[in-house]
Each structure stands twice: as C-alpha cells, then as structure tokens.
Amino acid sequence: MDTKTREWAANFAQFIVDSPSCYHAAASVAKRLDAAGFRRQEESETWDATPGGHYIVRDGAVLAYWIPQGATPKTPFRVVGVHTDSPGLKLKPHPDATTPEGFKHLGVEVYGGPLFNSWLDRDLELAGRVTTRDGRVLLARTGAIMRVPQLAIHLDRTVNNEGLKLSAQKHLHPIWGINSEGDFLSFLADKLGLDNASEIVGYDLITVDAQAPNFLGAQGELMAGGRMDNLVGTYAGLVAMEELVANGGPTDGAICVLAAFDHEEVGSSTCAGAAGPILEDVLRRTHDALGGTEETFRAVISLSNCMSSDVGHSVHPNYSERHDPDNRPVLGGGPMLKVNAQQRYTTDALGESIWEKALVDAGLKGQVFVSNNDMPCGSTIGPITATRLGLLTFDVGIAILSMHSARELCHVQDLLDLSAVMGTYWHGAAYNGKH
Ligand SMILES: [Zn+2]
C-alpha cells in the first residue's frame, strides 16, 4: 500500500471517530467544507447562488453544492447521494431503570436494521444532539460508558449450534453501573457543562461502538470499524468535492451536488431524508436564484442525474452460496455498480453508461452486484431520489462484509477508488450523450 492510500485511510478512520452520530457527521463535513472555502447557507435566508461552494445543514443531513462561473437556468445538476446515519440503538424517553439486583439499565429502541449480536460485549458510547431549555442545540457524546453483556455459554448451552435469539425489548438493555448514584440525564448534563438535568429538554442519542477503526491484514489493507454504512460514501464524496473545488470545478459547467441525507436506515421519509424535500429544496432554490422558472427547472432536471452511493455486499467467504454465482464482487475489487430488476436499486442501461464513463475516466475497473434470486435485495436512497425528482439515478458503492454490524469491514483501496470515480463523474459527460 502506498503512502497516499495509507494516509487517506487514516484520515477516514479519524473521520469515523469524529462522526459517532449523523449530527456529528454533518458537523465534520461542514467543518471541512468551511476549510475548503464553502459558504454556509442558512435556509431561512435569501438563497445565494453566486459561483463557488455552498452548503446547508439540516438535522443530520448536509448538502454541499458547487456553482460554476457562468451558471444559468440551463445549467444541469450532477448529484452524488449518500447518507450519514447508521443502524444502532436509540435512547428512549425516561431511560433509567434499575433491576432488583441494582444494575443500572438504559432503555433503548432499535434504529434501522442492526445485527443485534454485533452490539453485544462491546464498549458503547451514546452520541447525538441535545436541546436545552435556553434554546441551544448541542452535539453530545458520552465516551465509552456502557455495554450489553452477552449471556455466558454455561447459561445458554445450545447457542453455538442452534443460534442466538434476541428480543429487542428484553435482551438489548445496556448496563452502565450497579448500586451507584445518579441518573443518566444528570450524567449527560454534567458532561455538557449544564447545571442540571432539567436544562435538557430533548435528545436524539444513539449507541456507537467506542472502539476506533483498526487496520487488518499484512499490509493493513482491510479496515474494520463502525458506521462504514454509509460514512464510506459520505467521506469519499467529501474528498472528491474538495478535490473538485481545488481543481476549479468541472469544465462542462454542471452544478455538482453532494447530498448526504439522514434517515436512510429507517426509510428516508423525514425532512432530512431522501424522500423529503431537502434535495429538491437545494436544486430548486439554486435554480430559482439563477433566474429559472418551474418550466426551466423541469427541463434542467431532464438533463441532470444522480449517482447514489451506498455500501454493498462482498461475497462472504464462509457463505459464498448466498451470492449470485456469476457476479462475484469482493473487497478490493473496485467500485461497484448495483443492479436489481425490481428497482430496489435504480441502475439501468443509461445509468450504467454514465458509470462506465466515470470509471474509464478514473482509469479504474469496477465490479457489479446483483442478488442471488433466492435472497431478497436491500435498498437505498437511489430509487427514492429517482421517484421523488424524476432524476436519472444509478446505484453504486463499494463491497463490504458484515453490513449493519456494529463493526463492518472494507478494503481501503476501494475507498480511494470510489472517491476518484465520484470525481470523474462530477467532471464528465456520459456515453449516452444526453447527460
Ligand atoms: Zn447504507
């Protein structure tokens, strides 16, 4: 592995550490965009569509857009869509409970589709945002404070052969003390420098693995860590956007957009999710500020497109029969196109031609994911974005193992390659000539 790859991967690992929740991820992206000269657009203010980089943050979503010199109501959009949220356990209201033996439990509910077993026996922190009585919104993280302990094998003799069955209500309580003083919100208030728990009026807090990513394999080419789904796409898009801007933007004058949505893991139907208006708000308000109308907006959408990037499945070496026999994507095999006849992924022949051109321009070879027909396929923001806006969309990503585990596994070369192909996508036209 060369120095650039190693450095890139180390920076991504730090990005994961700095982004334990979707709100932290949006803040991490915003901080980098500020450093790259992007201007923050408040949605309550008049829209600024002057040339250069801009961004908005809405809840856990962050959308960045680069407007070239000479943009007009005829300038199309080229969108890379990703998401900032990951599956986990969300803190319930009135979270404190104590067992008869004195264990301090926290009440949690399931966010998205985590692999429950992967959350056992890990040192966990809670991270997210808190609202205060004096009207502030604070980012919050506790550091490692708790754990969901697994039942010892002596008390569950059949677990290895018959499988682990976990009730979401009964078996996922994290413990964070025994016979000790204090409630969780008082602890959190103290962490945040607030006088007492009554200053906290609301919170969105989710569990996260407190362990930093690790590099495995002889060359450190395999990366293990939390929230790769989909900080992989978020970080790859961020770096591609930074490089795009450093190089002066695309020569053919498209408006380049990085849309990092929230709430993908719970279906996207929220004000910061892909099924809500957030992307349309950015596209339409930018278009309007450039002098466009409803009519020209629809015309420009017909010339625009979207690369929806999320992680996909590598062939699992221990379960290789679960995958399609002829399409065998693997870790390190390069960026991945995702295809599904039921349109759980949006990719079609037109999208494929845009993807192929971007790959060729980046000097890369890709791979393709399609499900084994006996295994139902997951989905992502691609179909939602296409349906919401009528935007030609195609689904891509990188191959990972252990998707929706508290710690997933990817190949660092794929990260760089995905970022490179996002860059060439923003830079260039496609084989079909239309886009
Ligand atoms: Zn995802």
UniProtKB/TrEMBL annotation:
Instruction: Write down the required cofactor(s).
Output: Zn(2+)
Q: What is its EC number?
A: 3.4.11.-
Checking Pfam families in the record gives: Peptidase_M18
Q: Quick check: keyword Translocase in the entry?
A: no
Q: Which GO terms describe its biological process?
A: proteolysis
Keyword check for Heme: no
- Superkingdom as given in the UniProt entry: Bacteria
Q: Which GO terms describe its cellular component?
A: cytoplasm
Q: Which InterPro entries match?
A: Peptidase_M18, Peptidase_M18_dom2
What keywords are annotated for this sequence in UniProt? Aminopeptidase, Hydrolase, Metal-binding, Metalloprotease, Protease, Zinc
GO terms of molecular function:
aminopeptidase activity; metallopeptidase activity; zinc ion binding
Q: State the family it belongs to.
A: Belongs to the peptidase M18 family.
- What NCBIfam families does the annotation carry? PRK02813.1
Q: What is this protein called?
A: M18 family aminopeptidase
| Organism (species) | Boudabousia liubingyangii
